[in-house]
Amino acid sequence: xxxxxxxxxxxxxxxxxxxxxxxxxxxxxxxxxxxLARGLGLSETVFVDDAHRGIVDIYTPGVRLPFAGYPLxxxxxxxxxxxLELPVGSIPxxxxxxxxxxxxxxxxxPPRTLRQYAGPREVDALAVPxxxxxxxxxxxxxxxxxxxxxxxxxxxxxxIDEDEATGAAALLLADRLGRAVAVTQxxxxxxxxxxxxxxxxxxxxxxCTVDNPAH
Length: 215
Hints:
Blueprint: E1 2-8, E2 16-21, H1 30-40, E3 44-50, E4 55-59, E5 64-65, H2 69-79, E6 83-86, E7 89-96, E8 99-104, E9 113-116, H3 120-124, E10 135-142, E11 147-153, H4 167-177, E12 181-185, E13 189-195, E14 201-209
């Protein structure tokens, strides 16, 4: 197991903790993988099925996902590849300065409700909603500069009441807004997202290793 902190800040703080099983053959079927993801209790766990070709498999504690943002940024950083392969399609990877970026299509993102609020204080004051729809609550911190405050509520009832950082939701928001954004999510996670020239959207951020996934 590798544990990574994805979308951390420049000091390696915050970010959403990701579990990566480097050799997916250790968990050969969906039932075994789901059981491990449930036991770890992280927002997502990734199983690497082919480290050379970038074939990966993503699970929450309750479901298998065809696509997710922060797990792909994290595993791209760990494997050092230029491309990842998912059932939905190929995911190009690039690196710039201290950031790892992936490119994906907004239609690959599972259903998300993007809910805008008047300002960051309203977002900060939100209580965790009852299980139901996946809500990405956001507000402009500085609209001219593209700076956004956000919180993510999966609404799945699987023990993850709030996601510290959600790349797929930030990708969807940048696509809907049609502009580059810098998102501060959760307690201070940093997510960059920007529409691309070919119908894709780019999301990127910093990744670091973490010894204790509980912190």
